[in-house]
Amino acid sequence: MTQSTDTTASILALDLGTTTGWAVRNSRCRILHGTAEFRHSRYEGGGMRYLRFGKWLDQTLEITGGIDAVYFEEVRRHIGTDAAHVFGGLLATLTSWCEAHGIPYQGVPVGTWKRHACGKGNAGKGEVIAAMRKLGFEPADDNEADAIAILLWALETRGGVA
How confident is the prediction for the chain on average, in pLDDT? Predict the structure, then answer.
């Protein structure tokens, strides 16, 4: 797998969830990655996680100096109802934020980016982590590994443009 560096677009890739994995290729073609926590405490309303996520997106936009496209894992089925609700709220927050900032966005089906990263669309969490480590990345968990894999898919198949 080779990284495309023919464009200087700043690309953000996300694996949305309570622990959101993120990876960004900045305008200097550096890839940064990590996770962000959006748990809510028992003393705050259910919407606070989405307000914090929106603020995190604002800070990411400021730190990167601009985001030209956003890619996110497009999940079609969740094991639990709570996970589905959290994903839906984060997705609504993300897409409305992108619309407000004029940033194109695209969901990437799980099987699509997994096939690109691991050679099979039903690769397990450990396989994705191992594939990203083989490429020289050191993801702390599967959320971070997924975001890196989505970013690499976007860079290599879309040239980074949504």
Answer: 91
